[in-house]
Amino acid sequence: xxxxxxxxxxxxxxxxxxxxxxxxxxxxxxxxxxxxxxxxxxxxxxxxxxxxxxxxxxxxxxxxxxxxxxxxxxxxxxxxxxxxxxxxxxxxxxxxxxxxxxxxxxxxxxxxxxxxxxxxxxxxxxxxxxxxxxxxxxxxxxxxxxxxxxxxxxxxxxxxxxxxxxxxxxxxxxxxxxxxxxxxxxxxxxxxxxxxxxxxxxxxxxxxxxxxxxxxxxxxxxxxxxxxxxxxxxxxxxxxxxxxxxxxxxxxxxxxxxxxxxxxxxxxxxxxxxxxxxxxxxxxxxxxxxxxxxxxxxxxxxxxxxxxxxxxxxxxxxxxxxxxxxxxxxxxxxxxxxxxxxxxxxxxxxxxxxxxxxxxxxxxxxxxxxxxxxxxxxxxxxxxxxxxxxxxxxxxxxxxxxxxxxxxxxxxxxxxxxxxxxxxxxxxxxxxxxxxxxxxxxxxxxxxxxxxxxxxxxxxxxxxxxxxxxxxxxxxxxxxxxxx
Length: 484
What we know:
mainly alpha
């Protein structure tokens, strides 16, 4: 018999919760254990903020999209960081692999949220606390939907309803030798149905006045649903995506250039931000996945991506670190394009930045793609032209007279606008395109130039630890290509 391999965060959150919101100042030494269990709304709040603070696995999603794509090359200071991803040599094991991190991060958050939802049924509710409890429960449902969708994105060979995906169980569980569980894989259709059900539950509980960008709001729920709709890719889902993103863009218009720069480089302007994770110096530094604190460059921007950035494009100033006091001059050079996104707020904390999960630019790109796939080419073209104009892009927008022209151009714009935000590799998969690195980039990346369209490595393997310990998944259930 096998026991399941899941990070079960449930009752073991050490909180540094001020970083989630100044509105919730929680004692950072507070630890929830079996002896100090969840009894009231304040305890439940602590559990929720812990799930926000450490459970979304966004860093793994960023790296799993960046390393295997065409946006990175091996840096001059690389000592093995990300090499297996860049060379498409990832596999189902060992523990600590790129696939393992995404899987365990999603399920760690998933089971933590399940415990929050269960505890919410039994805690003491004082007069006047019902709305707060509902808000907590609603946000927990939103976090669960987000985690489930990450599993769909990375572990489904395609996004057809009948395709095997991850799995879900809606109760908190204890995993030990006497308590064996078997969880077979659900289909994409089943996972999406549960995701949408959780979004609906969250929407019914989260208040209309929730506007904190560090918490799930109703606007963030619309953003999550829009992203899901794009992957589902039916006329019905795409029509819904157009409606939802139109609402979001009206509420959060695209940032002007200086605000755009501040949004990424200074963490100061949230005019376009829908939902993000706040980071302080007690948290992981996302930029340190690209380079070391001493400035050694693990990975740098590919020549292929740099070629798409005109000098007038504000995204060049964000994506490239050319003039900050954070990167030593001995590291930054014309021969190496140092990544500026997540470069850090100042020289004292290089690599420390908030992480933006949803913002209006992505929503406009979702709407443009939905329009194109629905055959509304003029609307799709107008959306892309608006983004390029406000960003100062030099790209020429072709006339969208057919599906191929429209989608190719939208994919090109997504590459630039959403670089290093957790989309590129899976975008190539969704659009049925290969990874095609330039000859210069391939030479830097040890000759790794092309991952052909439809290659099995566009889908990540189920971690071997899960297969070894879950009675519901066997070697025969592994994603194609990883059992050889």
